[in-house]
Amino acid sequence: MPTKNDDLIVTLNKKIDRLIAAVEGLADTGPQAKIDLDLAEAFVWNPENLALMPVKKVNRIDMPLLKGIDQVRDILIENTRRFAAGKPANNVLLWGARGMGKSSLVKAAQAYVNQDQGKQNNLKLIEIHREDIDSLPILLNHLREKVERVILFCDDLSFDHDDSSYKSLKAALDGGVEGRPDSVIFYATSNRRHLLPRDMMENERSTAINPSEAVEEKVSLSDRFGLWLGFHKCSQDEYLEMVFGYADHFQLPYDRDKMRHEALEWSTTRGARSGRVAWQFIQDLAGRLDATI
Hints:
Blueprint: H1 4-28, E1 42-46, E2 51-54, H2 70-84, E3 92-96, H3 102-117, E4 123-127, H4 136-143, E5 149-154, H5 166-174, E6 184-190, H6 198-207, H7 211-219, E7 227-231, H8 236-249, H9 256-270, H10 275-288
Parallel strand pairs: 1-4, 3-6, 3-7, 4-5, 5-6
Antiparallel strand pairs: 1-2
Helix pairs in contact: 2-3, 6-7, 8-9, 8-10
């Protein structure tokens, strides 16, 4: 005959079962990654919400407008084309002079290869911000299940003295047990070839017990990139070619000799010649001419 203690045990067991079910239900309703690559051709990774934010209109320049970088352009397009076709391809580091079209080339290459293959939006572009690099393994884990080919893009990638997040990037690119998914490739732009300040590497060399090992550990990050594409300061002729290329593309009605003189004066006031400076001059000229670009 059941006693009060038996009833108490039965009641307690029921409560424990309900508690376990509630905890399991809570775990099931945790934050889920919102990864839908059908929404757009380009996205921005938001690690706080574990979501890819679709980009309705990508800020890009058409490939024919990128002047003075023919060699690196062809190399990047070929690497991107092979990757999109499912063939072996390398991670790419585009480094060098500022304003010479590094990030513009990445975005243009994605659109160019998509159009060239006749499969619009087949190759996806996902931008991950420099400060979110620590979340890269999480993103890679979610992309591992996708069939789409994805370019992960980090613009202006570099690391400071007290920043150790480069170790996470090293492991995500070519280390770890799982490694990088075959459907994902990593493109990064930087003003630094080794992504780290020169004085940082020199300090390591001067203070470490084994200087060569300390420096090797620092520069091994850039070794994860199979392709290094260098962008160098352009000559005056290359700068003017960029200016005239923009002007012809947008059909700006302006005297060519006068445009040349003003473009050179513009670059002198900026203290630099680059694709970015040429574009800024064209924007100013179009504004004065009340033209749409």
